[in-house]
Amino acid sequence: AERAGQAHFDEIIAKDSRIEPRDWMPEGYRKTLTRQISQHAHSEIIGMQPEANWITRAPSLKRKAILMAKVQDEAGHGLYLYSAAETLGTPRDELNDQLLSGRAKYSSIFNYPARTWADMGAIGWLVDGAAIANQVPLCRASYGPYGRAMVRVCKEESFHQRQGFEILLELANGSDQQKQMAQDAVDRFYEPSLMMFGPPDGDSPNSQQSMAWNIKRFTNDDLRQRFVGMIVEQVKVLGLTLPDPELRFDEESGQWIHKELNWDEFKAVISGNGPCNVQRLARRREAHENGAWVREAAAAYAAQQAEKVA
Ligand code: FAQ
Predict the structure, then answer these.
(1) 39: Cβ below 6 Å to ligand 1?
(2) pLDDT tens across 249-258, in order?
(3) Distance (Å, rounded) from C-alpha 89 to C-alpha 257?
(4) What is the dihedral of CA 228, 58, 282, 198, to 10 degrees?
(5) 94 and 42 Cβ atoms separated by less than 8 Å
(6) Between β-strands 248-250 and 255-257, what pairing exists: parallel, antiparallel or unpaired?
(7) Of 90, 120, 197, 293, which is most buried by a Cβ count within 10 Å?
(8) Could you tell me the distance, in angstroms and rounded to a whole number, from the CA of residue 106 to the centre of ligand 1?
(9) Separation CA 237–CA 243 (nearest Å)
(10) What start-end ranges are recorded for coiled-coil regions in this protein (predicted)?
(11) What CA–CA distances, in Å, run from 81 to 34, 35, 152, 199, 284?
(12) Angle at Cα 146 formed by Cα 96 and Cα 191, nearest 5°?
């Protein structure tokens, strides 16, 4: 049965078609998808914190309503993604335990602080921008539930990016102080947003296999290149600059040459030692504990309903 399963799986991958939850799949495929999808879900949930920090201080009622809606969208993305991950067999409670106990990774970017209102602009423009560049190809991921979730997530993400860009545009055209605040936010988020694409290809242990399985469609460096090419143009419209004086397009290699990223910092951040890791996890544990009564009530209601049916 295993041999027939493998043959069927190989055929689906070769045709660039989709694997669905009930199909046979290699254990490694299940494992890498569970890792990537749950990490992605955790990122959405932890990623609510830097922006939630500014909801009460948004400069107008309109900005507040928009920011609240964006943060709620992120919760929704987390929920779709946990559901997609569960179809691979690991229950949500277990995935959540992995996050709360510090065993699971989530995106490095959310371990940086959001210091000013302009950071809401930089997060929308750069962080959501990087997220879209990374996630559009994932709409074609070979695992059905993941690819389908990505389609909807990307639609919402592109709205998020525009709202961030628009915040920065308004600040960049405001007073000198506002313009400076926008530039400072871009300066701080530029390098961490380039790191969202993961380590350079030579240090990316999962890329090759994930590409062979049609989960990833491009390498980390390829997607980082695309993103740099996008923001280089957009920053001109903002009237701001990227904090990368060496940045240039090399005609010969067809590559953007950007500054050397600080990969030691990246490693520290993804192993729990970034500026906000401790605070982010503590806040998440607290929120989980505060939600215990909801889980208890839902379980009691479900038990009652089951009894009625019986
Ligand atoms: N941060 O072999 P690779 C969002 C880990 S967007 C932390 O290259 P892979 C939207 C990697 O997991 C952010 N860890 O790995 C939003 C692996 O770990 P292992 C979320 C990272 O998987 C916006 C190890 O390093 N998006 O949330 C990072 O092939 C605004 C080796 O790396 C996604 O998750 C990193 N930056 O490629 C929300 C997208 N990079 O094996 C709120 C889906 C690498 O030790 C506000 N994920 N690692 O467990 C992916 O596309 C891939 O997983 C990559 C990494 C590209 C991130």
Answers:
(1) yes
(2) 999 999 999 9
(3) 42
(4) -10
(5) no
(6) antiparallel
(7) 120
(8) 7
(9) 16
(10) none
(11) 10, 11, 11, 23, 17
(12) 75
